[in-house]
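F.,

This is the one I mentioned.
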């Protein structure tokens, strides 16, 4: 695939069911955990939220059991019902539940706080360890697409990202425009 342009970067909330004591989540940054092994849910094996929690587990030395679901909705239901302990939930999907007090957002997974939830700290702020994980969007074209077409798509998409309607729609999703050119897309995999 050949890239046209990445669209935006959306953080996750590291959430719990509004019931775990702070020390159970490793919030102190010292890798502390409860007497029992923690569980975390995801929208499925190999998804962004699954791999985000695996990285968090590895980096912070927290032993957790992964419970994969068939989508974000069922995982959030079980998180609210306290059948699982934690989840890296999409900020839009979990946001309503956080605002209603049904979930506690411990932190956001990006290096910067979310514009939608500016009072929720980053994992890096809480622990002092670098952590920057997000979902990102982009537009891809098949390999072999002529450079002229990719350039035209890139130009048109960049132009659309400056319109008020697109900026507003992205902001409502907690998305930050990456502003990258197609040549830079492979770099995003490393950020």
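My design for it:
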């Amino acid at each position: 695939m050949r890239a046209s342009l990445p669209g935006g970067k959306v953080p996750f909330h590291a959430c719990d069911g509004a019931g775990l004591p702070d020390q159970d989540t490793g919030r102190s940054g010292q890798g502390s955990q409860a007497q029992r092994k923690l569980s975390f849910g995801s929208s499925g094996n190999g998804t962004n939220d699954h791999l985000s929690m695996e990285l968090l587990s590895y980096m912070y030395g927290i032993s957790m059991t992964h419970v994969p679901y068939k989508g974000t909705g069922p995982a959030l239901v079980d998180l609210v019902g306290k059948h699982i302990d934690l989840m890296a939930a999409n900020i839009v999907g979990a946001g309503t539940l956080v605002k209603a007090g049904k979930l506690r957002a411990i932190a956001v997974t990006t290096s910067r706080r979310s514009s939608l939830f500016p009072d929720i700290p980053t994992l890096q702020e809480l622990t002092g360890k670098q952590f920057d994980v997000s979902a990102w969007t982009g537009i891809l074209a098949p390999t072999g697409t002529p450079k002229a077409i990719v350039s035209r798509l890139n130009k048109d998409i960049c132009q659309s990202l400056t319109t008020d309607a697109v900026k507003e729609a992205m902001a409502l999703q907690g998305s930050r425009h990456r502003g990258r050119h197609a040549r830079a897309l492979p770099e995003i995999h490393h950020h």
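Residues 147-160 form the longest helix (14 residues).

Talk soon.
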